[in-house]
Amino acid sequence: MSKPESPIDVSPARGKALAKAALELAAITVLYVAVAKLSLTFASVNPSATPIWPTTGYALAAVLLLGYRIWPALFIGAFVVNVLTAGSFYTSLGIGAGNTLEAIVAGYILNRWADGRNAFGTPSGVAKFTLVCFASGTVISATMGVGSLSLGGYAPWRDFGSIWTTWWMGDSTGALVITPAIVLWMTEAGRKLERRELTQSALVYGAAIAVGFIAFSPIFAQTPPRTPLAFLAVLPLMWAALRRNQRDTAITALILSGFAVWGNCVGHGTVLAWKSQRFAAASARLHDQHHGSGPRLERGSRHTQTP
Q: In angstroms, rounded to a whole number, what is the distance separating the alpha carbons of residues 73 and 59?
């Protein structure tokens, strides 16, 4: 008589797959905590609320690239970060749940409405992505996060509006700046690049770094003659949008936004990072129109920029 088969698959292949999945979730959690702790150095109105939250962009990119199954890693990472930062066990649960729902909801809407990870390939996809960043998951995260802190007594109710606005804007900015860079970089990671392409990308990134140092960094004193130098950001962004591709445009925007945030957090910046990202979104649409992947504007038509 043969032995009955076990209802649980304990084969070596199954065990290897489970170990790989566990390692992947652990890596996502550790990276989430690392990015979040770095982001909290920008905290202003509350230890848990920052004017830019790159972790939102990281989490959303992870959902778009790996699927909804990674939600436990996002939840654990958000919970650990908030336990170590401010609040109690229960407020950290509320904030962690809000941050997880933020990425899952935004990812679901993008997958159903904007072709998911391919949203950055068309002007309409970029516009939909921008709208989702401002109007879906970030609202959930800000409401649940600030509500948890207020209910727990860690934030006064009279400051609910200002903390909520900072939280929402920080999450939206993080998604706008970080998600496109990660998604575009990872989706094109398997494509073999020629030396000429690498050289051109390096030149664009180098120009962005140079402009960032000159126009935004706090290394140089902020004087009235220096303020107009912020417009130099147009040059590398236009270069990337018209002569390169979506990936280089996103990376260029990320570099310039990083310098802008650095300067503003130190108190010597000239513009806020989200303004650079708004222009980057327009540059991405311009790139698509220039290369024929989207409808061109007719002469005399009005182009309304998505906020």
A: 10
DSSP state of 187: H
Summarize the confidence of residues 238-251 as an average pLDDT: 83
Which residue carries 């860690």 as its tokens?
154
Distances (CA, A) of 247 to 67, 132, 222, 251: 21, 20, 31, 6
Q: Of 208, 152, 166, nearest to 52 (Cα)?
A: 166
Give how far Cα 206 sits from Cα of 16, 110, 177, 236, 286, Å: 42, 32, 18, 9, 22
Token digits of residue 282: 């327009």
- Residue 169's nearest CA partner among 89, 79, 274, 87 is 274
Task: Report the alpha-carbon distance of residue 72 to residue 186 in Å, rounded.
Answer: 22
Cα 243 from Cα 161, distance rounded (Å): 43
**pLDDT tens digits, one per residue of 203-223:** 988 988 998 888 887 777 777
Contact 78, 95 (CB under 8 A): yes
Q: What DSSP designation does 179 have?
A: H
Looking at residue 9, its pLDDT comes to 55
**Cβ distance 118 to 82 under 8 Å?**
no
Of 140-149, 230-239, 271-280, give the range with the top mean pLDDT.
140-149
- Identify whether the C-beta of residue 276 lies closer than 8 Å to the C-beta of residue 233: yes
Nearest partner of 127 among 72, 160, 65, 176, judged by Cα: 176
The helix/strand/coil state of 216 is coil
Number of C-beta neighbours around residue 6 at 10 A: 8
Whether pTM > 0.85 for this model: the answer is: no
Question: Could you tell me which of 23, 53, 47 has the C-alpha nearest to residue 35?
Answer: 53
- Report yes or no: 262 and 220 within 8 Å, Cβ to Cβ: no
Task: Specify the DSSP class assigned to residue 49.
Answer: B
Q: What is the pLDDT of residue 196?
A: 82
Q: Are 85 and 48 in contact (CB under 8 A)?
A: yes
